[in-house]
Amino acid sequence: VVCLLAYHIFFMLFIWSYWKTIFTLPMNPSKEFHLSYSDKESLEREPRGESQQEVLRRAAKDLPIYTRTMSGAIRYCDRCHLVKPDRCHHCSVCDKCILKMDHHCPWVNNCVGFSNYKFFLLFLAYSLVYCLFIAATDLQYFIKFWTNGLPDTQAKFHIMFLFFAAAMFSVSLSSLFGYHCWLVSKNKSTLEVFRAPIFRHRTDKNGFSLGFSKNLRQVFGDEKKYWLLPVFSSLGDGCSFPTCLVNQDPEQASTPGGLNSTSKNENHLFPAKPLRDSQSHLLTDTPSWSETSAKAEKGKVGMNNPALTMENET
């Protein structure tokens, strides 16, 4: 009875997670990241060069973006006509920009990103547990098959097939689930593993990592009672993310408190635009940044501001 109850629980959680992974629509960037009609016209009218750089620089001035392209340009999507938020990428299959895109999964026919990444992880976890459960309960009959302990009927071939299928899926799912657990612990996406995010001052493959505990909470949320249930509990809005980097490009015009800078070249620290409550509290364990610490850090980290060039990413 206990085994039968466990079987039904794992099966229901597996189906629920799979359903949510498939039918949860990927989140797209909010309206503030889309170019205005006038900026879009200016961008199309002006030739590539300094004029286009100025249009994008003006459009991204008040946006919480800290990553750039390989050439130092603002990440712009010419198909969606928007300035890409950090960790956002354009999916060629869905033909739209996906927030915190991890990959496009053909098995669920959907993009795995900010809105359904937790569901995808639970789908892998419950699939693995389900396959291991089937393999474990079928093992004794599989042994009897080879020792001629089963009746000579067609059912024994079904037992053999079921064990092999469950065992093979367990091996493949364990490797995939383990890989994504490592991604969560490092606060990375699959795309960021192959190409590290480029910040305004340097490339940093661990720029979004806040430590294991905070990385885990960013995906699963603060309420532990929801961690094992396929309900959305991830922190943030998918458009801006806390980072372990502390220095910031002097382009940004506002401080964390929202005050205007007194000097164009004054160094203000991350973030220039206040994060949402669910994001900023992830940084509460770190020392608060002040003007004194800003000046101290200024000499430690280079503040090269690369010239922005127009570069379209897909």
TrEMBL record:
InterPro entries: Palmitoyltrfase_DHHC (IPR001594), PFA4/ZDH16/20/ERF2-like (IPR039859). Residues 74-193 form the Palmitoyltransferase DHHC domain. Its EC number is 2.3.1.225. Residues 252-264, 280-293 have a biased composition (Polar residues). It is a multi-pass membrane protein. It comes from the Eukaryota. Coiled coil: none annotated. The chain crosses the membrane at residues 6-25, 119-137, 157-179. It is found in: Membrane. Keywords: Acyltransferase, Membrane, Transferase, Transmembrane, Transmembrane helix. One of its GO terms (cellular component) is membrane. It catalyses: L-cysteinyl-[protein] + hexadecanoyl-CoA = S-hexadecanoyl-L-cysteinyl-[protein] + CoA. GO terms for molecular function: protein-cysteine S-palmitoyltransferase activity. Its main location: membrane. It holds the Pfam family DHHC. Residues 252-314 are annotated as: Disordered. It is an enzyme of class 2 (transferase). The DHHC domain is required for palmitoyltransferase activity. Belongs to the DHHC palmitoyltransferase family. This is Palmitoyltransferase. It comes from Pachyramphus minor. The gene is Zdhhc2.
